[in-house]
Amino acid sequence: MTTSIRRPYTGSCHCGSTRYILHLNLPHTRIRIPTKEENPDNRPPTDVQLFYRCNCTVCQKAGILHILTVSPPDDFLLLAPLDPEAELGDYRARDGGVHWYFCKTCGMRCFAFIGPSEVVDVDVGAAGESLRDVLSKKAGAGAGPIKAWRPKKEGWQGYLSINAGSLDAGQEGLDLREWKEKDWVMYLDLLEARGPGTMELPRYGIPHEDGMY
Question: pTM of the full predicted structure?
Answer without folding.
Answer: 0.91
